[in-house]
Structure formats: structure tokens, C-alpha cells
Amino acid sequence: MASGGMKIKNLSRNDLCWCGSGKKYKKCHMEMELQLEELRKKGYIVPGRKQIKTEAQIEGIRQSSQLTREILDMLGEYIKPGITTREIDHLVYDYTIKAGAYPAALNYKGFPASICTSLNNVICHGIPDETQLQDGDILNVDVTSILNKYYGDASRMFIIGNAAEQACKLVQVAKECLYLGIDQVKPFNRIGDIAFAIEQHANKHGFSVVQDFGGHGVGLEFHEEPFVHHYGQKDSGMVLVPNMVFTVEPMINAGNYKCRVLEDGWTTVTVDNSLSAQWEHTVRVTENSVEILTG
Ligand SMILES: [Zn+2]
After folding, report:
1. Angstrom distance (rounded) from CA 274 to CA 80
2. 3-state secondary structure at position 169
3. Which of 46, 105, 236, 293 has the fewest CB atoms nearer than 10 Å to its CB?
4. How many angstroms separate the alpha carbon of residue 214 from the centre of ligand 1?
């Protein structure tokens, strides 16, 4: 549920701040919360304390995110024609367990694997299986690690051998969309600013942005508030403040934006069978810009 009202409750100026910084409230989060309260009164959607991570939590999420990044790096040398998505899944499981972590996807709401592998026209949530990768395929691998109870979530595209020009362009534009979206992450910008930047760029290249799925708060849980949509208007959606942590993960289709979930309840494909590409990072809002935790 979206957090509605955030009050400056239970704290007076000289109390210790709720965030665990050890500073007095008036020297820490008070001013920002007063600012947010003003915005809330004007009708803005503002984050509550639950959406703002403490320094200790951020350090935990950073470590987990770095493991996720390491896993995606590791896969680079294995992902080539002939390997099956199940073999990729096993590589990730083994690496994750050896690192003292656990794959968040495994058994999540019944999901049967450690990662999502979304091939060609699959938008997201593809289930690893015996499919062998072929020259010309494009594949998204989505990894979320749980390390010391903290979650780090990222995904990347892999081009298998030599893909068609249009496929390579889609992969490239989807990556550009991710970074243009991330460029909008800074205090007092809004989720809609991220979305607008992404959609503009995708549309400019004749591609579309998936609407039914988006990014999400992450760190203490797999999926937290807010929902991060990747299409729509500037100056809309939740206001961003320092130490919010969430994913940006635009799904870009070569054709129609609409999607369809297959009978397995997970695999989500394009309705028109066109190719789809996605890149994802876990990011943190800093005092004046952004930290890419999985970067
Ligand atoms: Zn504080």
C-alpha cells in the first residue's frame, strides 16, 4: 500500500532522529520532513519513513547489490550459443550460495528458479529451462541476491553471437533508457520524471514501453513501495528524497507495448511477438543525485 500521510509524529526538535544517525532530529530529518509535509498538504504523494533507509541498511543493500553485479559479470563468459537457460540458473545458484547469500527469486510466490531468463519476445519473468541459446538471440538475465537479509536487484541483456541490427539497436536503446531514467533520480524530482525520460527516448526510436510492470522499492524486502512506472508524465508520482532505494528497470518492446502472461503464470511475452529488452539497476537517492548500488 502506498503510504499516504507522513506526520512529524512522536518527535520534538531535540529528540534523537528516528533514522538511527545519532543526531538530533532538528539537525537530521526534521527539515526535510517539514518540507514533505508541506508537499503532502498540496496533494503530492510523498514517501514515509519506511521508504527512507538508514545508513546501516544502505550499507547492507550496497553489499548485496555488489554481489548481484558480480554474478552478472561472472555470467558474461558463460553465456554463448549452446548453453541452456537452466545451466545459467545453476551457475547463479551455486555462485550465490558460495557467497553466503540466497537467490531471492527461488520459490518466491512459487517461482521455480533462482533467476529470470527472458529470451527474445519474452518481456520478463521467463523461467529457465532446457532451451539452448542460439546465435542471434537476445536474453535478459534478472538476478536478485539476498545477503545478510538485504536485497540487491539488477538485470542485463546478453546478445548471443551475432544478432540482427534491429535486435542490437533495441538492446542499446533499452540500456540508454535505463541511464536516462537514472539521470532523473535526485531529491525532490519525482518518479514521473524518470518515467518521462524513458518513454521519450524509447518512442524517439520507434519502440514502446511496457506499462504492466515496473520498478519497485527494494532492500529490506524484494518488492517495496513505491512502484516505479516507466511511462507517463513529468511531475507525477511520488517525490524522491535522500536514501530512498528502488529499482529502475524499463522493459522496451520493438513493437506494441502490450503483454500477455503464459499459462505457467510467470512468463510474460509481447502480444505481437516482437522483441523485448530490459536493463535494471538498484539505485539510491543521495543528498544531491544518485548512487547506482548495482553499478
Ligand atoms: Zn535522521
Report:
1. 22
2. helix
3. 236
4. 29
Residue-level pLDDT at 10? 78
Give residue 13 CA to ligand 1 midpoint distance, Å. 11
pLDDT at 139 over 50: yes
* pLDDT value for 20: 87
Query: Cα of 76 to ligand 1 centre, how many Å?
Result: 40
According to DSSP, residue 171 is labeled H
- What is the per-residue pLDDT for 134? 98
pLDDT tens per residue, range 40-52: 999 999 999 999 9
Measure 265 CA to ligand 1 centroid, in angstroms: 42
Sorted by sequence, the CB contacts under 8 Å of residue 29 that are 6+ apart come out as 17, 18, 19, 52
C-alpha pair distances (Å), 91 with each of 78, 114, 201: 9, 10, 34
Q: How far is CA 3 from CA 48, 179, 227, 237, 282, in A?
A: 6, 27, 12, 12, 21
The closest alpha carbon to 105, from 146, 158, 138, 157, belongs to 146
Q: Which H or E run includes 30? A: helix 30-41
Centroid of ligand 1 to alpha carbon of 236 (angstroms): 26
Q: Say if residue 169's pLDDT is above 90.
A: yes
Provide the whole-model pTM: 0.94
Cell of 72: 552478472
CB 158, CB 138: distance < 8 Å: yes
Tell which CATH classification among 3.40.50.300, 3.90.230.10, 3.40.30.10, 3.50.50.60 matches the domain 49-292.
Answer: 3.90.230.10
**Any idea where the domains of the chain sit in the sequence?**
49-292
